[in-house]
C-alpha cells in the first residue's frame, strides 16, 4: 500500500512527465470519427485488482468517483469526459480483486445484460498465472485461452453491437515478480493479443507503455510490487487506453 508521501511523489512525477512530454502517450483527439464511442455511450471496465483499484462495490451509479476506484479505469473515464464534453458518457467499473477469467464469466450475467454496455474493456490474466505460481490455482495457459475465448464468444453472441477493448496483461520485474514468471507469463500476453486480433475493436498495449516508462524511471516507480500500478503507473495505463479507444 502506498503511503500519502509516495502518492504525492508519484503524482508530481506524473505532472512532470506530462509537462515534458516524456513517457506518456498523447490521448486521442476528441473527434467522434476517431473514437470507438458515441454520445450517450455506456462504458464498462472489467478485470481484477488492477481494474478494481479499491472501488466501492456498493456504488452502482455511473461515473461515481468511489465506484470507479483509484486506478487507470477512473483516470481513463475522467479522460473520456474531458475529451468528449457533452456526450453524457456513463462509465462503470466492475473489476474484482483476485479474479481470473472464469470468475468474470461467472458474474457476467449479473450486470452485463442489465447495463447493456456499448463498450467493454477487459484486463485479465495476471492472476491466471500468479495464482498458479503460488499454488492457489491449477489452470494453465490453455485454460486461460479457452476460458477467455468462451467469454468473448458469449459476449459477441449476447451483445452483438458492443465494442470490445482487450488490454494487455503486464508485469514489471520488481517486487513479487522474479525469474519464476519467465518465460511463461509472456505466453498470457501473447494469448490475449491473439484473441484481441480475432475479437476486439481495440488492443491496449499496457506492457509496451510501462516498459517505455521504465526507460526513464525504475520499475518500482510504476508498479511497486511488479503487478499493481502506482498512481504514476495508473496514469501511464490510462493514457495508453485513451490513445487506443479515443
TrEMBL record:
<protein>
    <submittedName>
        <fullName>GDSL-like Lipase/Acylhydrolase</fullName>
    </submittedName>
</protein>
<dbReference type="InterPro" id="IPR036514">
    <property type="entry name" value="SGNH_hydro_sf"/>
</dbReference>
<dbReference type="GO" id="GO:0004622">
    <property type="term" value="F:phosphatidylcholine lysophospholipase activity"/>
</dbReference>
<feature type="domain" description="SGNH hydrolase-type esterase">
    <location>
        <begin position="47"/>
        <end position="235"/>
    </location>
</feature>
<dbReference type="InterPro" id="IPR013830">
    <property type="entry name" value="SGNH_hydro"/>
</dbReference>
<dbReference type="InterPro" id="IPR006311">
    <property type="entry name" value="TAT_signal"/>
</dbReference>
<dbReference type="InterPro" id="IPR019546">
    <property type="entry name" value="TAT_signal_bac_arc"/>
</dbReference>
<dbReference type="Pfam" id="PF13472">
    <property type="entry name" value="Lipase_GDSL_2"/>
</dbReference>
<keyword id="KW-0378">Hydrolase</keyword>
<dbReference type="InterPro" id="IPR051532">
    <property type="entry name" value="Ester_Hydrolysis_Enzymes"/>
</dbReference>
Amino acid at each position: 500500500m502506498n503511503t500519502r508521501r509516495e502518492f504525492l511523489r508519484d503524482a508530481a512525477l506524473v505532472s512532470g512527465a506530462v509537462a515534458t512530454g516524456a513517457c506518456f502517450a498523447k490521448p486521442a483527439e476528441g473527434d467522434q470519427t476517431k473514437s470507438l464511442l458515441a454520445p450517450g455511450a455506456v462504458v464498462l471496465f472489467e478485470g481484477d485488482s488492477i481494474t478494481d483499484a479499491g472501488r466501492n462495490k456498493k456504488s452502482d451509479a455511473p461515473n461515481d468517483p468511489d465506484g470507479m476506484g483509484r486506478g487507470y479505469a477512473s483516470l481513463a473515464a475522467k479522460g473520456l469526459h474531458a475529451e468528449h464534453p457533452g456526450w453524457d458518457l456513463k462509465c462503470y467499473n466492475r473489476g474484482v480483486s483476485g479474479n481470473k477469467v472464469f470468475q468474470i464469466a461467472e458474474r457476467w450475467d449479473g450486470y452485463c445484460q442489465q447495463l447493456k454496455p456499448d463498450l467493454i474493456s477487459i484486463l485479465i490474466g495476471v492472476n491466471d498465472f500468479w495464482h498458479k505460481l503460488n499454488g492457489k490455482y491449477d489452470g494453465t495457459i490453455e485454460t486461460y485461452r479457452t476460458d477467455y475465448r468462451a467469454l468473448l464468444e458469449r459476449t459477441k453472441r449476447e451483445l452483438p453491437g458492443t465494442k470490445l477493448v482487450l488490454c494487455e496483461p503486464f508485469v514489471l520485474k520488481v517486487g513479487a515478480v522474479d525469474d519464476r514468471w519467465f518465460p511463461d507469463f509472456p505466453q498470457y500476453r501473447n494469448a490475449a493479443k491473439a484473441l484481441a486480433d480475432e475479437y476486439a475493436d481495440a488492443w491496449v498495449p499496457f506492457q509496451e507503455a510501462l516498459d517505455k516508462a521504465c526507460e526513464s524511471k525504475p520499475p518500482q516507480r510504476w508498479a511497486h510490487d511488479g503487478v499493481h500500478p502506482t498512481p504514476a503507473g495508473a496514469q501511464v495505463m490510462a493514457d495508453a487506453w485513451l490513445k487506443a479507444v479515443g
